[in-house]
């Protein structure tokens, strides 16, 4: 019965948020420039992350005593729906943060401010070009700018690799060799993937490392290439020939339960020693093994933008710009260190300098990011991503061959691009 | 034929009652009727949640007819509904027959089986997620390892998705059905059984010809509410099977059901018009099946 009620409420929520929409959009009246203002910033993530951004907001308040910015947490699980409800009712936050493509999607529907009108494109020079591109809409609008970065690395158990006399693999050739030698040395779980397992993000690394891409520079789907085939074959072999598990185990859990090497996101780095004290001194990080076309790693992160229904658009845009300043990044990093959060600022020059990580870890992230690429920003990608992932899964699970799956994925991308 | 009672007299007599019903009626109309009517209208539009809705006639329904993911969700849901309702009803009845007594052992057992029904479904689903945790930490794989088996990728094996969903549903719902059946069993007069025993009827014949027919109203209720609940399965898929923002139905959409698909289309793809169309198709399916069920129940009564 409760299930029925819960499902009914879901449908009702869908219906209600649809029904509560305003019939048209009007320009929100802007508050007087120098009047005291309280802005609301809905930050997608955890409470600890909210606290780090609140430090930057407090610093902004010190410089602009008239402006108070309150940062509130939106959990990843329901952030998107809450932001949609806010955009639908055209009320709520002045500033929002969330997945890299969210601001593009909300912006395309008129719910975000194009920050170019408020000098936001000046941040381009400071941001990582690949990440900046993924935050910019296909028509060039800047509805959001990167707020932080996330990337992935190869975490490995130093004790297990030593036991098998294996160095962390640096190339595509070395990875299967390392897996075989670890197996021969009695390591039952030589390799696994956390972030991107069975998903397009996992394939992304291999695709670019093989010299391929999802789209050409003019946004034509490009999965029907020899590079894309080679990348998928290599990735699938890791599962089918070398025993990479299809079930996703969180990176630090995987290391803790005897996995020798695991591909995982930067966000686990700060927590391993704290949450898995047994692993202290027994793990390290390396960049992902490079492919025939070189090393490439996926770069994600969060975007931040200003809502079009805010009454304080100029102030909100000014705060977004302020977040790229040395002092704001230092304030966020200091608080992140205290709270053990794996924060990577959106400015590549700040990854090592003042980092929350140890110098060795920061170096690994920096080199991953230097050769990094972000999600495709081409029209139709968001609609296609889940179908592309299903096609990749069908090859991994032995239900389709490489060429057919890639052709079908390219067809879906083509259809959605129209 | 009596002359109609004048409105003024009717109001004088029932005015207070109507006035007391008004708050409920206002809420009912505002939060149920109006949104329902709106969602029907939106199912004929391309509403994206933010911009004004554009009327597109039957386009959403035409797209639904061609949407392979929707077909997949529909067939998954069909399989899930049949398996979970049949198994759930049988097990509820079995439990009720086993623990319908008034002694303490029976009461304790009934409480134990009813517990999932009073626990938050979110908490239950998180617990199941732990059971099917892929590493050795998960309860499922710990048990498998006791018997020397290899760790199973429970949630990443497409063939296991529906059985796992059915298991979660039956485990969570059979206690509720059991309580209904226990009440139904209590309402059957003992005299029938005494008379049957005197006539030499075996336990099976008593069950077949007294218990089952007299439990028919309870069975109809358990099946219809079970059907509705099963068609609307959401948390189980959303919490246990979602592995990423783009992966609402689990690996190869093996756990994709109608309501999670509706949510995915409405709330992550801004297709609220399309999501409304899915909601109305779901409503029609449930409506027709419930009618069929009630009709079959009535026909059997007339036999």
Can you describe what's shown?
- The complex is a heterodimer of chains A (418) and B (303).
- Chain A is of the alpha/beta class and 418 residues long.
- Chain A has helices at 2-19, 47-63, 76-89, 102-108, 129-135, 158-163, 174-184, 200-209, 226-240, 251-256, 272-275, 313-322, 326-338, 359-370, 381-396, 402-417; strands spanning 37-44, 67-74, 95-99, 145-157, 189-193, 259-265, 283-286, 298-306, 373-374.
- The longest helix of chain A has 18 residues, at 2-19.
- The model of chain A is unreliable at 1-26 (pLDDT under 50).
- Chain B has one domain: Orthogonal Bundle (MetI-like fold), CATH 1.10.3720.10.
- In chain B, helix 7 (161-186) runs antiparallel to helix 10.
- Chain B is built from 13 helices and no strands.
- Chain B has helices at residues 7-42, 59-66, 68-98, 104-118, 121-131, 139-146, 161-186, 190-198, 203-214, 216-231, 235-241, 258-268, 272-302.
- Chain B is an all-alpha fold and 303 residues long.
- At the A-B interface, helix 1, helix 3 and helix 15 of A face helix 1, helix 7, helix 10, helix 12 and helix 13 of B.
Structural class of the secondary elements of chain A?
alpha/beta
- Indicate the mean pLDDT of chain A: 90
Number of separate helices of chain B: 13
- Number of self-contained structural domains of chain B: 1
Q: Count the E strands of chain B.
A: 0
Q: Strand portion of chain B, in percent?
A: under 5%
**Main beta-sheet strand count, sense and barrel state of chain A:** 9 strands, mixed
Q: Main beta sheet of chain B: strand number and arrangement?
A: none
Question: Into which percent range does the helicity of residues of chain B fall?
Answer: over 70%
Superfamily at the CATH H level of chain B?
MetI-like
The overall pLDDT of chain B, averaged over residues, is 90
How many E-type strands of chain A? 9
Oligomer: heterodimer
Shape of chain B: globular
Kindly identify the CATH topology of chain B: MetI-like fold
CATH level 3 topology of the largest domain in chain A:
D-Maltodextrin-Binding Protein, domain 2
End-to-end Cα distance of chain A, whole Å, is 43 Å
